[in-house]
Design a protein that fits this description.
Blueprint (H helix, E strand, L loop, with lengths): L1 H27 L8 H11 L18 E5 L6 H8 L2 H4 L4 E5 L5 H6 L5 E5 H9 L4 E9 L2 E6 L14 E4 L5 H12 L12 E4 L5 H6 L5 E5 L2 H9 L1 E6 L10 E8 H6 L1 H19 L2 H10 L7 H8 L8 H17 L9 H7 L11
Parallel strand pairs: 1-2, 6-7, 6-8
Antiparallel strand pairs: 3-10, 4-10, 5-8, 5-9
Keywords: Signal
Protein name: NitT/TauT family transport system substrate-binding protein
Pfam families: NMT1
Length: 363
C-alpha cells in the first residue's frame, strides 16, 4: 500500500511539472527572425485595440516633457532665448528642444514628433485650413520677408513685375505670400485667372544663382538669408515687410501648441506661451546679445553683426490680440488672390485657430 502511494505521488509530481513546462512554453511563444518577444507583444496589443504604450499627452502633467521644435531661423529668437536665459525654467516647464530640418515643422507636428513650435503667420493659415492640429497662442514679432532684384534691373515698383517671374521656395512659404500681397495691394493681378506675374520654385540655396543667371527677375526670401544675399550679390531690396508701410506693423511670427496639449495639459501651453512672450520682450532690448548668442550656441549660422542688424528691423513686442487680428487680414487677402478657397469661412477659421492661455504677460 505504501509502495502504491509512493508511485501515485511520483506520477502526480510529473503531471504537475509537465503542466508548468507547457504553460511557460505557450506564454513565451516563438519569434520570427529579426523580431523579439517584446515586439510581438506590442503588435498583439495593437491588434487587440489596446495601445502598446501610453501616448505622450497622457503622461501626468508634472512629468510631461514638452517637445519644442526649432529649425535654425534667426527670427526663432524667442525660443532660443527662452531656453538660454532661463524663461522656460522660470515657468517650471520641463522641455526638450527638437532640431528639425528647415521646412519640416508641420510634418513633425502631424507625425506627433513635437508639441509646440514657432511659425510665420502667413505660412500657418493654409495648413490650419487643411486641419493642421495646432492652436496659435501668441504673436511674437514683425518683419522677416523680403523680395530682391538685381541692381540695374529696372524693377523699382510692384507694377514693374508684370510679365516677369519671381523665384520662391514654395507656394505656401511666407515670402511667396508676402510678395503676392504687396503686388495685389498695388494693383497687380496675381489671381489664377489674371496671373500677371509668374512664380517659380527653387531651393533656397539656388535662388540667388537663379536670379544671377536671369532665370528669374526677382526672388522672395526670409531673413537673414535675404539680407545675406543682398549684401553678397549686390541685390536691391524692393519689398521689405520689416520696413515698409503697412507691413512693418503687422505681426508675422507666432508661437503655437498642438491641440492635444491644449486639451490634456493647458497649463503647459500657458507656461510655454508666457516663457516665449517674456523671451521675445527681452530680445527686443538686447538684439546684439541675441545675435551673438544664437551664433555661439549654434542655433543660427552667419555673422552676429549682420544678424543683429537684421534683428534690429524686427519689432519683438509680443501680443496675442495683434496676431489674432492679423490672421483675419491675412486670411482675407489670401482668399482674394486665390490662396484660400472662396467658400472658406475665414472668421470661423480664425476663431478655431487660436487658444488664449491663462496669465499671458502680453494680451
Amino acid at each position: 500500500m505504501n509502495k502504491l502511494k509512493k508511485v501515485l505521488s511520483i506520477l502526480f509530481a510529473l503531471t504537475l511539472l509537465a503542466g508548468i513546462i507547457s504553460a511557460c512554453s505557450s506564454s513565451t511563444g516563438t519569434s520570427s527572425p529579426g523580431s523579439s518577444p517584446s515586439a510581438s507583444a506590442d503588435a498583439s496589443a495593437s491588434s487587440s485595440g489596446t495601445p502598446a504604450a501610453a501616448s505622450p499627452s497622457s503622461a501626468p502633467e508634472d512629468d510631461y516633457v514638452l517637445r519644442i521644435g526649432w529649425g535654425g531661423s534667426l527670427c526663432e529668437a524667442a525660443i532660443h532665448i527662452a531656453a538660454e536665459k532661463g524663461f522656460f525654467d522660470k515657468e517650471g516647464l520641463k522641455y526638450e528642444l527638437v532640431k528639425l530640418a528647415p521646412g519640416t515643422t508641420f510634418d513633425a507636428v502631424t507625425a506627433d514628433q513635437i508639441d509646440a513650435s514657432f511659425g510665420l503667420l502667413a505660412s500657418l493659415i493654409q495648413p490650419l485650413s487643411n486641419g493642421l492640429p495646432v492652436k496659435i497662442t501668441t504673436g511674437l514679432h514683425t518683419g522677416c520677408d523680403k523680395v530682391l532684384v538685381k541692381a540695374g534691373s529696372g524693377i523699382t515698383t510692384p507694377k514693374d513685375f508684370i510679365g516677369k517671374t519671381i523665384g520662391v521656395t514654395s507656394y505656401t512659404a511666407s515670402p511667396y505670400i508676402f510678395a503676392k500681397r504687396v503686388l495685389a495691394d498695388n494693383g497687380v493681378d496675381v489671381t489664377v485667372k489674371g496671373n500677371q506675374v509668374n512664380f517659380a520654385i527653387y531651393s533656397q540655396a539656388d535662388l540667388p544663382a537663379a536670379l544671377a543667371k536671369g532665370a528669374v527677375d526677382g526672388i522672395a526670401l526670409n531673413d537673414p538669408t535675404a539680407t545675406i544675399a543682398a549684401n553678397q550679390d549686390n541685390l536691391n531690396i524692393i519689398f521689405d515687410s520689416a520696413m515698409q508701410e503697412p507691413y512693418k506693423d503687422q505681426y508675422c511670427c507666432s508661437a503655437y501648441v498642438r491641440d492635444n496639449i491644449i486639451t490634456d495639459h493647458p497649463t503647459l501651453a500657458a507656461k510655454y506661451t508666457r516663457a516665449v512672450q517674456e523671451a521675445a520682450a527681452w530680445a527686443q532690448d538686447n538684439k546684439d546679445e541675441v545675435a551673438q548668442l544664437q551664433v555661439d550656441k549654434k542655433y543660427v549660422a552667419g555673422d552676429p553683426a549682420v544678424n543683429a542688424e537684421v534683428l534690429k528691423t524686427f519689432n519683438y513686442m509680443p501680443s496675442y490680440q495683434q496676431a489674432y487680428d492679423m490672421f483675419a487680414l491675412l486670411g482675407t487677402q489670401m482668399q482674394s488672390v486665390g490662396l484660400l478657397p472662396d467658400d472658406l469661412d475665414v472668421t470661423a477659421l480664425q476663431k478655431n485657430s487660436f487658444f488664449k492661455p491663462d496669465g499671458l504677460l502680453y494680451n
